[in-house]
Design brief:
The protein is mainly α and about 80 residues long. The protein has three helices and no strands. It has a domain of about 55 residues. It is about 75% helix and about 0% strand.
Length: about 80
């Protein structure tokens, strides 16, 4: 579902939009792309923070080590 929105651009955003549309791309196209990319970056940042939290968790590290030993043992039986 497409939805129209209206935004006010400051000077920095206006310059960025100009740079992105200079090669002939439509404003709506570059704004949509920028929104999607920002959302992806936030998702990646959230995942990175979760990985950082888990790597600092001694219980989680111990569980990973147990699983790795189990997998090694299963491969050895192979």
């Amino acid at each position: 579902m497409e939805r129209a929105i209206s935004i006010r651009l400051d000077d920095e955003a206006q310059r960025a939009l100009g740079a992105l549309t200079a090669a002939g791309r439509k404003q709506s196209e570059v704004v949509r792309e920028a929104l999607v990319e920002l959302a992806r970056r936030q998702d990646r940042a959230g995942l990175a923070a979760e990985a950082e939290r888990l790597s600092a968790d001694s219980c989680d590290r111990a569980e990973k080590a147990d699983i790795a030993r189990l997998m090694d043992a299963l491969r050895a039986k192979g």
